[in-house]
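Supplementary material to the annual report.
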Amino acid sequence: MQQVSPSVAAARVLAGLRAKKQQRERIVALTAYDWLTASWLAHCPVDFLLVGDSLANVVAGHESTLPVTMDEMVYHTRMVVRGAGGVPVIADLPFLSYEVTPEAAVLNAGRLVKEAGATAVKLEGGAELAPTIERIVRAHIPVLGHLGLTPQSVLELGGYKVQGTHANDAERLRAHARAVQEAGAFALVLECIPGTLAALITADLAIPTIGIGAGPDCDGQILVTHDVLGWFDQPKKFVKQYAHCRQIATAAITAFAADVRAGRFPATEHTF
Ligand code: KIV
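Predicted assembly:
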């Protein structure tokens, strides 16, 4: 078999996502923000890793994703790419890195590819950003769209609320989804919308939909890895915790502290 480089392997996986939709094979994605996480996730059955700007909340302790900078996204994406092997890494374009002009959007998307090694970029928004998506795609950079609850619009939305619950909002979101597809996005994240609406959008589109809080009928699912692993005490409604890492880690550190205080660590076998 011909050997291909990790970046070519990653690009092929992304190019194959549409076929997965056609074959009704569900797509699985998770977030990663650092090398360690990417290096073990790369050995799990995931289709792609997202360096989400959710790193603002999850690793930087911000209240929203608005403070994230391009330099921070480049830094985190580089770490993830170093660990990801041939698994595609998609990097978020942060707030105000793509809304002002399509030219700036292309240059910033280019930084995530050239400086950090991302396979694709993600941006939040609909028809208003179609010309920007087209420009980035014309620069040969694959774009993942993101509609529904778009956290970078939190000031306009007035909080993190389920979107598309009224009939006219739902129709508007369906039109935006079609515009994102027409503009050339290869897939679309649907965040926090009713499952019935996500099913309609998924049926409308030829490109795959990746849901987060959007019910079971999307073509794939993405979650924040830290949520899946139970690093937070209060899981959101749409999250299922598959482990309780916060409890496991707290118990481990409590045992370490007790051993140190009791003189049980280090023992002879840990001593030179
Ligand atoms: O920033 C992020 O992690 C995301 C996903 C939750 C879709 O946008």
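The first strand starts at residue 27 and ends at 31.
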